[in-house]
Amino acid sequence: MKLREDPGVHIAVPLNVWVVFVSVIFLFCPATTDGQAPAPATPGPEHEILRSLEGDWQVFVKDEVVGSATARLRLGDRFLELELVSDSGPVRHAIYTFGFDRRHGVYTVVALDDSGTYSVTARGTAKGARIMMYGKDDDPVMRSMGLDKEFVIVLDVQSDDNVLIETLLVDTRTPDRNEMPFLSYELRRLR
Questions:
Q1: What gap in Å lies between CA 152 and CA 8, rounded to an integer?
Q2: Rounded to a whole number, what is the largest CA-CA distance in the chain?
Q3: Long-range Cβ contacts of 63-66 (<8 Å, 24+ apart)
Q4: What SS3 string covers the chain?
Q5: For residue 159, what pLDDT is reported?
Q6: Other beta carbons within 10 Å of 169
Q7: What pLDDT score does 144 carry?
Q8: Are 152 and 131 in contact (CB under 8 A)?
């Protein structure tokens, strides 16, 4: 089926509207020509720690092999997607997508797993090779008990061949806001 073109319909856009439109595009999409810093939409030096994790891993809990993980760079090396499969524990299949938000200067994670039908997000900073990302979840069960659900997802790159991924729950009932271990996986690189 061929659509019939109507030669009588034209939309006239004044030149000044086009100039404003193009100016806005260039304003929000700057490119560097001095070689100092990469453009905002490209990976920066903070992404190197994520790039170093690409590959295949064995998953350990308390020095016992419980599964495997595969980490792959995605979207032009902007994000690291880590898929973890475990034979035991409360979470048997999880996908973490780690990134670095150059606009705000923070590491980010989106985490999904087979314990629910929702995802959680967190943001944070690095101290050396230990990245701590803080998040909140509107958990209806905890809310019904009068509690807030806050958590920390930790990505601790201990070496090129050893990584720790932890989820800590924040005790929001006290002013101390202690961080309590919930899940912990050690990843050892497969060679």
A1: 60
A2: 74
A3: none
A4: CCCCCCCCCCCCCCHHHHHHHHHHHHHHCCCCCCCCCCCCCCCCHHHHHHHCCCEEEEEEECCEEEEEEEEEEECCCCEEEEEEEECCCCCCEEEEEEEEECCCCEEEEEEEECCCCCEEEEEEEEECCEEEEEEEECCHHHHHCCCCEEEEEEEEEEECCEEEEEEEEECCCCCCCCEEEEEEEEEEECC
A5: 94
A6: 16
A7: 84
A8: no
Task: Give the pLDDT confidence score for residue 42 in this predicted structure.
Answer: 85
CA angle 168, 170, 171 (to 5 degrees): 135
Tokens of residue 138, six digits: 């509107």
Residue 1 in tokens: 């089926």
Neighbours of 133 (CB within 10 A): 21
List, run by run, the mean pLDDT of 10-residue segments along the chain (191 residues): 53 58 49 55 90 96 95 96 93 96 95 93 95 92 82 96 95 89 94 78
Cα–Cα distance for residue pair 121/110, rounded to 1 Å: 5
Distance between CA atoms of 55 and 68, rounded to whole angstroms?
11
What pTM did the predictor assign?
0.77
Amino acid at 131: I
Q: Are 185 and 178 in contact (CB under 8 A)?
A: no
